[in-house]
Specification:
CATH architecture: 2-Layer Sandwich
Helix content: 25-40%
Number of domains: 1
Largest sheet: 6 strands, antiparallel
CATH topology: Beta-Lactamase
Radius of gyration: 16 Å
Strand content: 25-35%
Distance between the termini: 48 Å
Number of strands: 6
CATH class: Alpha Beta
Oligomer: single chain
Structural class: alpha+beta
Length: about 170
Amino acid sequence: MPDPLSKTAAAHPPAELIWNPEPEDFRAAGSAAVYRYWLDQRHGRRFPGRADIDPLAMRGALGNIALIEVQHDPQRFRIRLAGTYQAQRLGFDPTGMWLDELPAPEYRQLLIDRLQALLARPEPLLVRNRQLMDDRWYDYETIWLPMASDGDSIDMVMACQIFADAPQGG
């Protein structure tokens, strides 16, 4: 008997991952604008810190932005802020939740895997994905951006996730 997951995998190619993206790699204006802002806020450091980020400077993309706290020992991730478009897509506001407590198991694991990959390779990561998870379609572009209070040790991740059918911001 054929594996039903293989049909799903064949119908939905794996996510496209682009490390250290270039401006032409972006499809969504909002995620490109957030990336340019993040680059500007480094001020010669490897990564900007949370204190360097002014939400008003990204007001057009705020509904698409999440801030995720990184705890290292033990490794865990907490959603400090979820944008309104993300909460609408999920059907609830995950702000304040630990990722391992999210009720959508496939989406939860995808997020944890992305964050662990980012910690293993601490560079900006652009992801394009279209797949069915937890009985919901996800068709989006996300820029994952490491942040560090000390400029080097990641303690927060900012992500701008723009769904194909949602406002892009800019």
